[in-house]
Amino acid sequence: MNRILKILITVMSIISIISCSNSNNKTNNSNTAAENTSGVIRVATPGAYPIFSEVNDNGELQGYDIDIWEEIGRRLGKKVEWTQVAMDGCFGALDAGKVDSVTQQISITKARMEKYYFSEPYFLSPYKLYVPGTNSSINKFEDMYGKKLALALGSAAHEYIKRLDPEGKIEIVSFRSDSLVTLPNNVANGKADASIQSVVTFDDRIKKTGLDLKLVGDVVYTEVNAFPFRKDEEGKKLCDDVSKTLLEMREDGTLENIAVKWFGYNPMEGLDFQAELEKLLATF
Prior knowledge:
five-stranded mixed beta sheet, three-stranded parallel beta sheet, about 40% helix, alpha/beta
């Protein structure tokens, strides 16, 4: 009973951090972050992830996350100013105060929660392994023991896989993933045995790359996606404002409409954000 109570208390305290409710939790960022321009929200994104954040033929950012942020800006009466940078540099820009948040299906993880405030979640994303179409030896997570798994530098996948494979039986091979085809190509050409991909974006990636790859096995983990903010006074206020706006957008059907625009359906229909969040936090 004491163990269960301890877990519940831990979960509730972490939830309070995510909801941006701890106004006294500040870091040295408050002393070093550049002052934000009034009326502007600066957001960094790699622009290299199908459907969520990508660059179109005109060189413009587009996608689910992009539309959500533009709507948040409109409702808050602020202009969204975009900065395109590789994922491993996005959080550095946030730490330095060069941007106010980061987007591209950003996942809540234990390490990130210790450093950033997180907004209300806006998306849930199950991930599965994918392998070459001719591969028949990898059908579940444990089949990756002794094999190479390709992951993008700076991605939350590193933290998830480390938690699921604490003994390091899987060899992680990291690649800078500035291109849509980087990870799939490295799996297709044998530089890695498999990689991992959001189920809702896999078909789109295969269509665009034309590679012979397939999803295998059960869901390895489910990301809870939200927007990170620095743990300073300005970051907390913006996090509060964004969270309130996201809740309004969920309640009035705007998030669903944006999802249907980009996915052709609403992947979140019938899913419980709070349940998935609590399940995630219980693993920390």
